[in-house]
Amino acid sequence: MSHKFLLFYIFSSISIPGIFGQSYAFNRTLDYLKSNDTNRSLSASKTAITTSAAITSTGKFSIILLPDTQYYTAEPQGTRGGSNAIFKRQVNWIVNNRATKNIVYVGHLGDCANNGDKYEVEWKRGDTAMKLLENANLTGLPEGIPYGVCVGNHDQSPNGDYSGTTTYYNKYFGTARFSGRSYYGGHYSTNNDNFYDLFSVGNIDFLVLYFEFNTSTTNFTGAGGPLDWGESVIKSYPKRNIIVISHYVLSSSASFTSQGLNIYKRFKIYPNFKLMFGGHVPDSAAEAMRASTSNGNTVYTVLSNYQGRIKGGNGLLRIYEFDPANNNVAVKTYSPYTGAYETDANSQFNMNVKLITNTGALSSNLTSNSESISVNKFPSNTSQSFFTIYPNPNSTRYIILSSNEEIKGKVTIEIFNVTGNLLLQKTFQGINKMFNLEHHLSPGSYLVVMKSERGKDERTLIVVK
Fold it and tell me: Which CATH homologous superfamily contains domain 52-352?
């Protein structure tokens, strides 16, 4: 007796024209993007996502990091001279320069608020600033710019207590906010204090792991703890470049903190571990960088925090411009509030980072600059396939994938666009013949791949107006 199984799945692909255009795809699954690794991440959310952006004609792209904003959001306003207007000026600059600097991701280094769960208004101020990144009209992107917010000690109550509460953090930057977003990967335990994001730039894939402020080595490194969880996520994505963001990982003397050292010692065996970032240090000289090499792989750990400056930071943020062709990351420190760069050696420097690049299923025939491809580059839809797509050509918002029999075990569905970018990857256990997918694909040709214990099958999907 067969039982019809319906899986509702929403995804979208929207291309923004121009050399700085970005292409985003939304899915709601744990992706094993361009990887043969089948390990599942422990305690990860069941819904994990991937987002991709196009490399510019120069091949460069940028990640922006926001250091501690606690004095910008603090109650009362004016604490240490800060105000939320400075915070909003920072984020407005990011939005306004998204295209020209090809900004693909934004990370907040923690201490979004100053008083943890004491004053909700501080979190409302942080929300007002950060939600500008989500504005499709301002950014020109359907989901806005992908971003994450780290939990710092001032986001916890009591201050610095990992076992305390992060009620307002999870109210304003928890799973409810991010779980529907294409770049959100999953979280540890029952809240969003430790989580990860996934995004791609052309054929360069990233995994960004966030760890909350935690000075308890026993809790952080213990069996089944956050570090175990983080390692399980890394094992699931062996071809993604790993960035770790945690609030306090490096001192102003460039020495690892206990949490930073524990992270580095555990993850240094993974050749895709590339960068680690933190803030927290409150003095005015809170800038440092260290390069740590193990088995030929160099990991750069960087401290940047400006809350000890005038006006609670004076609007300073960090720009990381990646130049994969030259294995370089150019680091700059800039204040949208004053319009000035800091150019001393601690504020402006370069890091020699060799990123892992991946070859997608179609990249042997396609390039990132391809605008179209003839359908005969895709497989023909023959009766020998073990799944079919209909209606196809498709002029509706729905497609149905139908298998000729029940498939047990792990099943993975992938959809590629004509430039070879993986737009969707969904993995689940067992199907019972039918998937009903809602989509918002632009007119064009797409490759749909199904992988299971029965093997691999590929179908062409044609979307028409």
Answer: Metallo-dependent phosphatases (3.60.21.10)
